[in-house]
Amino acid sequence: MENGLTDHGFGKEENYDRKAELQAFDDTKAGVKGLADSGITKIPRIFIHQAGNFLKQSKSKESLQYEFPVIDLDGIRKGPITRKEVVEKAREASEKWGFFHVVNHGIPVGVLEEMIAGVHRFFDQDFEVRQEWYTRDATKRVVHNSNFDLFSSPAANWRDTVFCIMAPNPPNPEELPPVCRDILIKCSQEVAKLGSTLFEILSEALGLNPNYLNNIGCNEGLAVICNYYPPCPQPDLTLGTTNHTDGDFLTVLVQDHIGGLEVLHENQWVAVPPLPGALVINIGDLLQLISNDKFISVEHRVLANDVSTRVSVASFFRNFDVSPSAKVYGPIPDLLSDENPAKYRAITVKEYVTFFNNKGLDGTSALTHFRLQ
């Protein structure tokens, strides 16, 4: 086949060697897209998840009672009263859900649509072009592969990605894939501006000076992950993305109309409905840590489907530079008291990232490792 895929014995029971199967899959450099293009009818065994991962399915009637939070950011521009209402809604959503939609966020819908289209263009390229970007070298500023934790996670996810570090030191334009170069740069600039605004709102929601979170560097780093989920022949056996929390301060997500993103709310998986023109915002582990559990970083996952390709673009606010930083983050002193002592030890972002990456998406929270006894 043009993508270099052969049977490789994927999924066969006899003489099963998981490590060899993982390596054989990675060596194709074709990713999940290559498997889907090859016309397989059964997924490789490395993608099969334990049945327990599918408990608390969102299709139950109980999930219909939840209304996913939507915050209209137009209110922050209309005056102090409406701004206060926006801040209060953000506080409530960050405390109870860890997730919310934002509308009237200032990023043109055309930019969001072109970003989704750019991801499709990348993965629609010939295999020979895509494989030139495929790498496991985490020091590169642009990384295309399938499953960053392929060799450490309990089961692989039905997803390919393109990862780009965009701030504080953006790559040279020629380092980015030509088919989505311009829109990556444009969208990242727009998201960076929105991020600073969101951190102002969240600072106020914590009872702090509006500039607090920006001043301590929550907005200084930005990475973009373009997610590509092709149709899966056996979606009930795998996941697009395993349940996990995000290893950052804040995530801004552009998702297409397909759906599949779910949030664990009150021990129930709740679908995050695609909302045209809206962005999905969620609190990351590092913001939960410095807010001393005031805001929550919540588990979420993406279901696989056998109908259509799903695309999303997640922008992560965190310094992704590989060099160790001396900057230490711990629970914000102004939020602590005798009744509310620090629940986490102070850490560097480097320390957190090393633990998060080594752990992989195994369904557990990295925050537990840093919690004080």
UniProtKB/TrEMBL annotation:
GO biological process: coumarin biosynthetic process; response to molecule of fungal origin
Domain Fe2OG dioxygenase: start-end pairs: 220-320
Pfam families assigned: 2OG-FeII_Oxy, DIOX_N
Gene3D superfamilies: B-lactam Antibiotic, Isopenicillin N Synthase, Chain
Transmembrane helix in keyword set: no
Keyword Nucleus among UniProt keywords: no
Keywords, ordered alphabetically: Iron, Metal-binding, Oxidoreductase, Vitamin C
InterPro entries: DIOX_N, IPNS-like_FE2OG_OXY, IPNS-like_sf, Oxoglu/Fe-dep_dioxygenase_dom
GO molecular function, one term: L-ascorbic acid binding
Family: Belongs to the iron/ascorbate-dependent oxidoreductase family.
Protein name as it appears in the record: OLC1v1019760C1
